[in-house]
Each structure stands twice: as structure tokens, then as C-alpha cells.
Design a protein that fits this description.
- The protein is of the alpha/beta class.
- It has a single domain (27-350), classed as L-arginine/glycine Amidinotransferase, Chain A (5-stranded Propeller), CATH 3.75.10.
- Helices cover 26% and strands 25% of the residues.
- It contains ten helices and 18 strands.
- It has helices spanning 47-50, 53-70, 85-89, 108-111, 131-134, 144-152, 194-205, 251-265, 308-321, 333-338; strands at residues 14-16, 27-28, 36-42, 76-80, 96-100, 115-118, 121-128, 156-162, 168-170, 175-179, 209-213, 230-234, 237-242, 269-274, 294-296, 299-303, 326-330, 347-350.
- A hairpin with a 2-residue loop joins strand 6 and strand 7 (121-128).
- The longest helix is centred in the first third of the chain and has 18 residues, at 53-70.
- The protein starts with 13 loop residues before the first strand and ends with a strand.
Length: 351
């Protein structure tokens, strides 16, 4: 599970320019709101990872609910070991297809294939998942992207990075943003400078510029993925959730404010919405992120937390940023208890 371990502060932020290109033709990853061919998801199945069979079943049911909802708008491929298919099928609609690709956990944004185009052809731009810096077993999850690419018969283009696509946001128009803590970290990329990591991320996404903020090292398993805090909703436009009353000794609150300042200094248009004050789960480790939503064909799939006011503000913001799409909210508290959300559990394949 994703959980806090240490208490570390946040530091400086920076904006840097274009790095060198990956060998071969440039890659391009469209924005998430561009048309999709389908969505990939992963089935949680490892009892050693979850530690409790009842909680594992709750996570499985939540993943099925998300998959069934997305499948109303576009095809969904759910990756799972063949031995898990009978269990999964009980909860899945006929619109969800199961593939025999073994998994341990559900985080398709991190371990799943990152699809890109190269010379107009579909490829996987591969960032090697290593269990968030070897904090969790990933014997199967570490091979998911490569196995999907092999099954589809498409090239796997090595980025030269270890990490997770959930740790970087892209607008599909040349701009990336990320927390250093998720990338410039010896648990992922030992020996690489921020500039070297940046060069490889820019090449992997086909981007030109990157905005960095410090983030938080060691407090949670992801080292503070940015997709729980801020999301691009268009070129130069960001939707961000922040606490109404930041706690001065909370490293995540301090880092979030620093990220806001970095984005503002970079000239981005920022729409800030509040975090929920009333939640069904009161744990300090619970991730209550409205920003961790997923955009699919014709819809936005987002979380609701039981705070009528904050939930409504979030829906209105998503309707404002994604006009013409249906906004559907789900109770995904299990994912929040695990430290993630709907975006973390999905990965789009562009059309």
C-alpha cells in the first residue's frame, strides 16, 4: 500500500528547456482528452501486496466498477492472469475484455504501457516500472508493458528511465510537469542528474519543455506523484486541488503550494479547487484527490468523497474544463486508502 514513512520538507522548484531527442524518429503522445482506441487497466490479485483478502476483494470490485463505467464510452482491456479471469468476469460487463497478462496490483498508469506514435505508427514508449523504487514486489507488474507490446506486435522504445508515467503530467502540446522526488531519486534513476532525467522524459513524450517542482521524498510509496495534485486540461491550462487551510507542518501541503508557485511562475492558467473537508475515510494517509480523474471518449470519470459542497465544486470544474463530456463520479475510497485514484488505475491507448 502507499503510505507515509518519513517526515521530510520540500525545497526549490525550476523551469527548464528542451533536451536532446531519443535515438530514431521523435515520439508523440497525444493529450489524454484526445480520442482513444481503448483503455487498459490491471487486476489486483496479490494477497502479499494487500495483506487482507477482504480488502483485496474490495479493490477488485472497485476496479470492476471503474472498468464497467469506462466501457460505456470506449473499449476496456483488463489485464489479469488467466487464473483470475473467472473471478473478474463475475463483476465485469461484456464490454470489458480480459487479456492473459499476469499482474500483482492495479496501477495501470504506472506499470501499464505508455502508448505513443512514431512516424504515425503506434509504439510503447517504455519507462521501466520498478515498484516505486523497489518498495513493492513487481515480478509481474514490471513486465506488463513489455508483454502488452509483444502481444500487440508493436515496438517497445526504451526511454532509459525507471519510474512511472503517473509521476509526470503532459499536455500533449510540448509541455511536461513533474516532481523531482518521483524521478531524480536514487531509488529510480541512480547516477542521473535532473537534466539527464529531463532529456529522457522529453524524448519519451515528444515534448519540448518541462516544469519541475521539488515534491516530497520518502513520505509515500510514489514519492508524491503529480497526478494527485495537478492536471493539464489543455495547452497552458491546469486544474489543481489544494487544501483551503494548509497545515504548516504537512510536507505534502507545503510541496503542493510550491508546485502551485512553480506553475504560476511558468505562466500557466491555474484553476484551483478545494480538497474535501468531509470524507468517509478519516485517515491522514487517505488520498482525497479530485485531480486524479480519467478522461475517456465522451466522459470524465472522477471520484466523490461524500463532501456535498466540495464534490459539487469538483464536478462543476470538470464540466468547465471538459465541455460536452459527461462527468461521472464514483465512490473509489478503496483506491484512496491505497494512496491513489482513478487516473492511477487507467492508461489510455490513443486512436
Amino acid at each position: 500500500m502507499r503510505r507515509r514513512d518519513l517526515m521530510l520538507g520540500a525545497a526549490a522548484f525550476g523551469v527548464t528547456a528542451k533536451g536532446s531527442a531519443m535515438a530514431g524518429s521523435p515520439l508523440h503522445i497525444p493529450p489524454e482528452e484526445a480520442p482513444h482506441a481503448q483503455t487498459f487497466m490491471m487486476w489486483p490479485s496479490s494477497l502479499p501486496v494487500y495483506g487482507d483478502r477482504v480488502f483485496l476483494r474490495m479493490a477488485q470490485r472497485t476496479i470492476a466498477d471503474i472498468a464497467n463505467t469506462i466501457a460505456q464510452f470506449e473499449p476496456v482491456i483488463l489485464l489479469a492472469d488467466a487464473a483470475q479471469h473467472a473471478t473478474a468476469r463475475k463483476w465485469l460487463s461484456d464490454a470489458v475484455t480480459l487479456w492473459d497478462v499476469p499482474t500483482e496490483d492495479l496501477w495501470a498508469r504506472d506499470a501499464g504501457p505508455l502508448f505513443a506514435f512514431q512516424d504515425g505508427e503506434l509504439v510503447v514508449s517504455h519507462i521501466q516500472f520498478n515498484g516505486w523504487g523497489n518498495k513493492q514486489q513487481h515480478r509481474h507488474d514490471g513486465q506488463v508493458a513489455a508483454r502488452v507490446a509483444a502481444r500487440m506486435g508493436i515496438p517497445l522504445i526504451d526511454s532509459g528511465l525507471k519510474g512511472e508515467p503517473g509521476g509526470v503530467e503532459h499536455d500533449g502540446h510540448g509541455l511536461l510537469m513533474a516532481h523531482e522526488s518521483s524521478w531524480v531519486n536514487p531509488n529510480r534513476n541512480p547516477g542521473l542528474s535532473r537534466g539527464q532525467v529531463e532529456d529522457r522524459l522529453l524524448a519519451a513524450y515528444g515534448a519540448e519543455r518541462m516544469i519541475w517542482a521539488r515534491g516530497v521524498y520518502g513520505e509515500d510509496i510514489t514519492d508524491y506523484h503529480i497526478d494527485a495534485l495537478a492536471r493539464f486540461t489543455g495547452p497552458g491550462r491546469v486544474l489543481m486541488n489544494l487544501p483551503d487551510a494548509p497545515v504548516t507542518d504537512d510536507p505534502f501541503h507545503l510541496a503542493a503550494l510550491e508546485t502551485h508557485d512553480a506553475l504560476k511562475a511558468a505562466g500557466l492558467e491555474i484553476d484551483v479547487i478545494p480538497e474535501p473537508e468531509i470524507r468517509r475515510v478519516a485517515s491522514i494517509e487517505f488520498v482525497a484527490s479530485y485531480a486524479n480523474y480519467y478522461v475517456c471518449n465522451g466522459a470524465v470519470i472522477a471520484a466523490q468523497f461524500g463532501d456535498e459542497t466540495a464534490d459539487t465544486i469538483a464536478v462543476e470544474a470538470l464540466q468547465r474544463h471538459y465541455p460536452g463530456r459527461e462527468v461521472i463520479t464514483l465512490n473509489v475510497d478503496v483506491l484512496g486508502e491505497l494512496g491513489g485514484g482513478i487516473h492511477c488505475a487507467t492508461q489510455q491507448m490513443p486512436a
